[in-house]
């Protein structure tokens, strides 16, 4: 069995990347549902807030994280993998940490 530079065979590498894409896809679907419902309720009550904007930013960041997942794990794909990780961290900050801070400041 031939190993790639990441120490895995091609099938393992493909499985890792597919699993990461699926997990990010699920995160996009869940976050989109939350953001859409929250936005609809906020508009209905006329109370758009910083939390709503933060959640939209988090949703955009996780979509960009999913789009940044590379096609492989070789060294030339590492910048894309790092970009995906950065977008994921930003999404978590915008979707969780910023709303908590906003709530603490109110």
How does this model look, in words?
The chain has helices spanning 10-45, 50-67, 78-105. By secondary structure, the chain is mostly helical. Helix 1 runs antiparallel to helix 2 (50-67) and helix 2 packs antiparallel against helix 3 (78-105). The longest helix is centred in the first third of the chain and has 36 residues, at 10-45. It is elongated, with a radius of gyration of 17 Å. The mean pLDDT is 90.
Radius of gyration: 17 Å
Characterize the overall form. elongated
Strand content: under 5%
User: Please, what is the average pLDDT?
Assistant: 90
Instruction: Determine the structural class based on helices, strands and strand pairing.
Output: mainly alpha
SSE arrangement, N to C: HHH
How many alpha or pi helices?
A: 3
Please outline the major beta sheet.
none
Q: Quaternary arrangement of the chains shown?
A: single chain
Distance between the termini: 59 Å
Uncertain runs: none
What is the percent of helical residues? over 70%
- Number of β-strand runs: 0
Question: How are the SSEs placed, and which strands pair?
Answer:
Layout: H1 10-45, H2 50-67, H3 78-105
Helix pairs in contact: 1-2, 2-3
Short description:
The protein is mainly alpha-helical and 106 residues long. It has helices at residues 10-45, 50-67, 78-105. The protein is built from three helices and no strands.
Which terms summarize this structure?
106 residues, mainly alpha, 3 helices, 0% strand, elongated
């Amino acid at each position: 069995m031939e190993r790639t530079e990441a120490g895995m065979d091609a099938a393992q590498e493909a499985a890792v990347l597919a699993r990461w894409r699926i997990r990010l896809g699920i995160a996009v679907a869940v976050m989109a549902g939350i953001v859409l419902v929250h936005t609809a309720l906020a508009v209905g009550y006329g109370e758009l807030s910083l939390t709503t904007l933060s959640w939209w930013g988090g949703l955009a960041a996780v979509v960009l994280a999913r789009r940044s997942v590379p096609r492989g794990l070789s060294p030339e794909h590492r910048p894309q993998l790092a970009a995906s990780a950065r977008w994921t961290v930003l999404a978590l900050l915008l979707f969780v940490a910023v709303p908590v801070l906003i709530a603490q400041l109110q």
